[in-house]
Specification:
alpha/beta; Rossmann fold; 6-stranded mixed beta sheet; 15 strands; elongated; DNA repair; nucleotide-binding; RecF/RecN/SMC_N; ATP binding; ATP-binding
Length: 590
Amino acid sequence: MRPRVEEVRIQGLGVIDEAVLELSPGFTVVTGETGAGKTMVVTGLGLLFGGRADPARVRPGADKALIEGTLVIEAEGRVAQQVGDVGGEVEDGQLIISRSVSAEGRSRAWLGGRAVPVGTLTYIADDLVAVHGQMDQQRLLQPGRQRAALDRYAGDELVKPLRAYEQAYKRHKQVGDLLHELTAKARERAQEADVLRFGLEEIEKAEPRQGEDVELKEEAERLSHADALRTAATTAHAALLGDPMTTAQDVQDAVSLLGHARTAVESVRDFDPALAGLSERLAEAGYLVSDVATELAAYAESVEADPARLAAVQERRATLNGLMRKYGEDVSAVLAWAQRAAERLTELDGDDDRIEELTREHGELGGRLAELAGELTAIRTAAAERFGEAVTKELTALAMPHARVSVAITAAGEFGPHGVDEVELRLASHPGAPPLPLTKGASGGELSRVMLAIEVVFAGADPVPTFVFDEVDAGVGGKAAVEIGRRLAKLARTAQVIVVTHLPQVAAFADQHLVVEKASDGRVVRSGVVALDREGRERELSRMLAGLEDSELGRAHAAELLSIAAADKGAWEKEASKAARGSGRRAATG
């Protein structure tokens, strides 16, 4: 489905109080008497797609001008995705765009029901519409657009080498950026390597072991409290098993007391089985306490105050604490830092080899780019020649027989994303005139015709779905006007075309004819838009031809124009149908 503008509602703009334009998918023409507000239709469309707001255009007495457009777009297409990205909605393939301009100059925009910056409308419009008005910035006057349009005009021949160039350019840029980073930050990398190397040497010299910090802490605690530990073990041993060095008879140890208790129970155990069980448990308790006492004695013997060892432990702990302050919270973290540092140092030490390798690759890619860029230039030059001849031929039929359009291709100073070519459309308006950029080489009326010729030639290559032309026929009449109508109608076979015109020869080729009608009560002028049927078209064309709506001669001439246009369009349809059938037969037999 081809996107198109389905309906436009205009309120409070110029002389238009309120008007609704229901637009044809093909060729829509807008006519009306001078001062009726035809140009306000184009102005409204321009505002709808991000054009500059002029508060002077707000209707006198109105607070603001409001333009609302309904567009038919692909629900899953690029434009719908862009709308979704800004929070707007597309419902059933329809997109609503609104723009308001207050009398004080404030401007607001809405896209899919979401308030957005006006610039967003301009961005969206890039894929939807090309407005060619007397005062508008022309879409195809942008250098990037001219290059892109020429590339599409060149066709399949350019596709493969351009894709290869773009891939090589992307890699060339990546390699160049990496080389720049490696060489520009050489000092920082050298400093980083020195820091890492110093840290690794310091850790390697200390030779820390996993868990060593915990072990040393425990040993330091023991050595620092050796006397207290020995005293505690000796006291506990004496309490459990007695002190052989004492002669006191009244001091009894735990083992002796347990022995007395067992002896007392043993003497009567045969009288009650329950007491026998308790006797066995007392025996077990005596053995257990005796074992503990033996271990306490051995522990007391093993604990010795060793000032020299304590000093060594404290010195080692100080060394490890110094590492932990710099490289990690414990020895495990220090060892992990050392592993990472060694890997990073290996990477940094390998940068010289990497720079050499990247430099070689960068040079090879540069040579490949130069080769592909030359191929692109050759293809574009040939396409530019064909294009210039085609547009010049169109201009001859558009009452500019001495004008010549050419495409200047110049080399940029460096590789770009699409080659080294700078593309500029130029116009020599008469023999002997130097080719100038379009904005400098043509007047307003001439520029509209040049743009029409370009759009006709680019139709299909520069696939904007909607074209709007204002006064494209300025300064033209007679046979040339008929040719303009024919070309607009041909363009409408591949795109939606909306044209404001004062020429009946152009209006006759339209698929839909809208007339801006002016009404006045003596004080206030209002304009509205009306869609005409066949009879209404004859009356309007007669007015445009003779200034009289009901002139018999004018009506006859209008009917003749409509018949000629219908015959031409019918012939085009037959040609298209025949070509389609021929293509289908070739595909079936192929």
